[in-house]
Amino acid sequence: MHPDLKAVVEVQQLDQQVAELTVLIDSLPKQIQTLQSQLDDFIHAHEERKKRLAANLKERKELEGEVKVIQEKITKHKDQLYQVKTNEQYKAMLKEIEGEEGNIRKIEDQILEKMIEAEDIQEHIREAAARLEGEKARVAAEIKHLQDERQKDLDEREHVQARRKELAAAVSESVLATYERLRTYRTGAAVAEVRDGLCTACNVRLRPQVYNEVRRGDAVLTCENCSRILFYLEPPAADQAEGGGEGTQVTMS
Fold it and tell me: How far apart are CA 19 and CA 159, in angstroms?
């Protein structure tokens, strides 16, 4: 294979590695933010339950205060029963006492509901408190792992980019310029394998003469349809013996 062609094929492989590593590197901060947001949501929910429990206690005390006021009124009314002078006044006073006692029962039902609600909230608070430190440790460990992975990918990308720079320096200016130009406006690869007489990038069949020249590999040629740089790989011997297709793995030697 022509040295420029061999080098530019490997340059493309390295560019693909850089692109894949960049996707991973760029995705990790979002994953870290998601983990942190999950922990923040857990802590926020825990704090909100504490506030609800405090509000519940305040409401119960206010209801208990109302009961106390009503009980004092009932006691006063009962004392006044001995002071009324007519039967009608006596009956009216009893009815008022009965109404106040009904109000107490309603308020006591509300207090009971608040107590049941408080028990449920307290149970959730206990469970969350038991899990909180574990959740903090889990998230911290996962974030540390992601940060380590990101640094590993950054180091790997830097290594690949250095190798790419080294290879690109060995490619002739015209071939490298063609490759870089194709990278800017062609979707996918700038270098395409020829297989079964077809450019695998645009799926157009090459003219027999061009196909033979590409197979020889002694010059850098481009597809007449999509302008991509073309290369050809001999199929593995095992595939030829079995009647298999041509391979796609680029092996540098």
Answer: 13
Q: What local confidence, expressed as pLDDT, does residue 238 receive? A: 55
Q: What's the CA angle centered on 38, arms 32 and 39, to 5 degrees?
A: 95
DSSP type of residue 86:
S
Block means of pLDDT (10 residues each) for the chain, 253 residues, are 91 93 93 93 95 96 95 90 86 91 95 96 94 93 94 96 94 92 82 93 93 92 92 74 45 37
How far is residue 182's CA from residue 184's CA, in Å, rounded to a whole number? 5
CA distance 175 to 220: 8
Residue extents of the structural domains in the chain: 3-169, 173-242
What would be the CATH architecture of the domain defined by 3-169? Answer: Orthogonal Bundle (1.10)
Contact 107/67 with Cβ under 8 angstroms?
yes
| Crossing angle of helices 3-81 and 173-185, rounded to 10° | 30
